[in-house]
Design goal:
This protein has about 700 residues and is an alpha+beta fold. Helix content is about 25%, strand content about 20%. The chain has three domains: about 20-185, Sandwich (Jelly Rolls); about 215-235 and about 250-280 and about 285-370 and about 570-690, Alpha-Beta Barrel (TIM Barrel), CATH 3.20.20.80; about 390-570, no CATH class. It contains 14 helices and 28 strands. Mean pLDDT is about 90; it is low at about 1-20 and about 690-705.
Length: about 700
């Protein structure tokens, strides 16, 4: 890492405990508590005084990192931390800020906020602390009148040990100007509340207006008719075989099933008829989205009575993801989406919605129904689809490990293989004989760690002595070093016994090599165990990997050695061919399982993981992203997350309320992004087949969030 500081001076203002300003960059001394990680800085003058210019390098997570000067900041009297960001460049920039308690690792003990700063503009980046004091509007990732909240788990705002401003894997070197780091929202001041109710009978925000907002059932039917006319004008893309493959492309071997092949240096999927196939898909084609209404009745202008047909869409959130507890959700849930489908399509709404969804996807140029789509959508699908498998069972997790969604499987537990065989056999029963099923994703966004934080190895050594993966790792180390004395000498540690051995706080190179060797062995065991079960239960279909969110190079190598296709969820503005050049060296086809963009100009409270300014820019971003994937020789497709927007009051198990749909919760498509999809999907096949230049650069493998 580069630690470089310009000779220009920088000052951090000293303020008393009650002050709002944390740093204003006025003065002549560089604070001892500022660390520069892959950035260069200098002090510049602007209209309000002085500010900090930061040049972020084109590496993973470059940041300016501030630590509390005396142990911890006590910010319990405030709602959050903000900084003004000026973007002097010619492209919009996604910039993030993370606020840490002790032990922060990017997922735990921290909150992370992000903002899109348009080219040539100044805007605030605000991290509203997630604490036990949630306020009256609970259970939502974005709040009306405020917008997106910080992400993460609850923190103690009286014990803030650090904060950083960073870029998430910038595709190019980027310059930003930081000023006026400040606390906002004193808790002793009156907080402006949103008038109740704020959700109308269609599930829309009451206190705003926008093009296409529905005010009556008649509006729904008018929109339905307008869309029907649009679909008749655009029935689908030309030059496609019955699987959506490239009919006039190079003729390849037809096996009756989907497979992969490298053609003139580019990886492709191949249709059962032997035509090249680039998978443009959309995830979560389904109707299950619901939000909590229990304890929130006053938020809603209308909820159905017991005799109302819409009452069928009340339900209870029992035995759902444990994250529901974190948002305070219990009891009744409700689906405005299903209610609007009932209004729009009548009693046969489920079948009519499904058939309309197929027509839409084909009209928009999609050729794949993506992950986590509804069972009846897959079973009746006229187009290719992927399926998913989650490994459940009685095997142990790595008890000393971490992770956002949960701890990693312990693949050395003998029960793991039994869990895999049972889970795979059950999940493949319906589709193993269906040639429209491309293959299976198995698991999702597991806790693989990164090159900087090899959590599989560290978590293994933090686990109890009887943890099967720890036993296996210790056996490997004993075989290599012979004695603990030899290991201590090489690792430069002072462990008193094998049972006390743990990961050093700052592992040296020899220790890192041993961690890498174990992570690779562990990862191979994971992928090989699953592939063996898939070959037994679904021998004709593809193993599509595990949908990496963050990944270290050893796990990525193991995946490429075993899987038919390696999958990555990459939430970025685009996939830079140079930045992802390492995929070429793995010599394995790759598929993006998730990406999306969102905006706040149509009544939503959260943009999702990659913000855009409005629906027009969201559409442009879709085109740019898909083109960037098509230009990369390793990728064989990309799948958008997801089909329909999440409820504005948050989905019931974790509070996400993102503008991530191609259709809104009125079941009306966003015309901008639908037309963008038609445009870019039409050009995907010749673009991917073309000989785009490929520049590789070395980087670690953390493609997400």
């Amino acid at each position: 890492m580069l630690f470089w500081i310009a000779m220009t001076s920088l000052v951090v203002s000293a303020h008393g405990a009650g002050a709002d300003v944390v740093y204003d960059f006025e003065g002549a001394a560089l604070p001892a508590n500022l660390t520069l990680n892959n950035v260069e800085v200098e002090l510049i003058s602007n209209a309000t005084g002085e500010a900090l210019l930061v040049r972020f390098k084109q590496v993973d997570w470059p940041n300016v990192f501030f630590t509390a000067p005396e142990g911890a900041w006590d910010w319990r009297e405030y709602r959050g931390l903000a900084v003004d960001i000026t973007n002097p460049g010619e492209d919009p920039v996604n910039v993030c800020m993370r606020v840490d308690n002790e032990g922060a690792d990017g997922a735990n003990h921290c909150n992370t906020a992000r903002a899109l700063i348009p080219a040539g503009k100044t805007g605030p980046l605000k991290a509203e602390f997630l604490t036990d004091d949630a306020g009256p509007l609970w259970g939502m990732r974005g709040i009306p009148g405020i917008g997106p909240l910080a992400q993460g788990k609850k923190i103690d705002s009286s014990k803030i040990v650090a904060f950083q401003v960073f870029l998430p894997m910038p595709a190019v070197p980027t310059t930003l100007i930081l000023d006026n780091v400040r606390l906002f929202g004193r808790k002793d001041a009156a907080r402006k509340e949103i008038p109740l109710p704020f959700v109308d009978r269609f599930g829309q925000y009451i206190h705003d207006d926008w093009p296409g907002k529905v005010t009556s059932e008649k509006d729904l039917l008018v929109q339905k008719q307008a869309e029907r006319e649009d679909l008749l004008k655009h029935p689908g893309l030309p030059d496609r075989d019955r699987f959506g493959g490239w009919a006039s492309g190079p003729k390849l071997e037809a096996t009756g099933w989907f497979r992969t092949e490298k053609v003139e240096g580019k990886w492709w999927l191949v249709t059962p008829e032997g035509n090249p196939f680039f998978s443009n898909g959309i995830d979560c084609v389904g109707t299950w989205e619901r939000t909590f209404v229990e304890g929130r009745d006053a938020w809603f202008e209308w909820l159905p009575g017991k005799e109302d047909p819409a009452a069928a869409f009340f339900g209870f959130a029992e035995n759902v993801h444990s994250m529901a507890d974190a948002i305070g959700g219990k009891g009744r849930t409700f689906s405005f989406y299903c209610t609007n489908l009932l209004r729009k399509y009548g009693d046969e709404w489920a079948t009519r919605w499904r058939e309309e969804s197929y027509r839409r996807l084909l009209s928009w140029g999609f050729n794949t129904i993506g992950n986590w789509s509804q069972g009846d959508v897959l079973e009746n699908s006229p187009m290719p689809f992927v399926s998913s498998i989650g490994i459940g069972g009685n095997h142990l997790p790595i008890r000393g490990g971490g992770g956002y969604w949960g701890k990693m499987h312990d693949v050395f537990d003998p029960e793991f293989e039994k869990s895999v065989e049972k889970s795979v056999a059950y999940a493949t029963t319906k589709f193993a004989s269906n040639p429209l099923c491309i293959g299976y994703f198995v698991d999702n966004e597991l806790s693989w760690g990164s090159d900087e934080n090899p959590d599989i190895a560290k978590g293994t050594l933090r686990s109890p002595t009887d943890q099967p993966c720890r036993v296996a790792f210790i056996e490997d180390l004993k075989e290599k070093y012979g004695s603990l004395k030899n290991l201590n000498k090489v690792w430069e540690t002072e462990s008193q016994g094998w049972d006390e051995l743990t990961a050093p706080e700052k592992p040296n190179e020899a220790c890192k090599e041993d961690f890498d060797a174990f992570v690779h062995k562990f990862s191979l065991r994971y992928f090989e165990t699953i592939k063996a079960a898939l070959r037994k239960s679904a021998p004709h279909q593809l193993y599509l990997g595990c949908r990496f969110a963050a990944v270290n190079r050893e796990s990525a190598k193991a995946c490429a050695e075993v899987c038919d296709v390696a999958s990555y969820n990459i939430y970025k503005t685009e996939v830079d061919t140079a930045q992802y050049g390492w995929l070429v060296d793995l010599n394995c086809p790759a598929l993006i399982g998730e990406f999306h963009f969102g905006a706040l100009d149509r009544g939503m409270f959260h943009t999702g993981l990659v913000p855009t300014a409005n629906q027009a820019e969201r559409a442009e971003s879709y085109i740019r992203y898909v083109r960037s994937v098509a230009d990369h020789p390793s990728f064989v497709g990309c799948h958008w997350f997801q089909y329909v927007d999440e409820p504005i009051t948050g989905r019931f198990f974790d509070g996400e309320n993102y503008n991530n749909g191609f259709v809104n919760t009125l079941d009306t498509p966003y015309p901008e992004i639908a037309n963008a999809a038609r445009q870019v999907h039409k050009e995907v096949y010749p673009r991917h087949y073309g000989k785009a230049k490929m520049n590789r650069q070395t980087c670690n493998l953390t493609p997400r969030r």
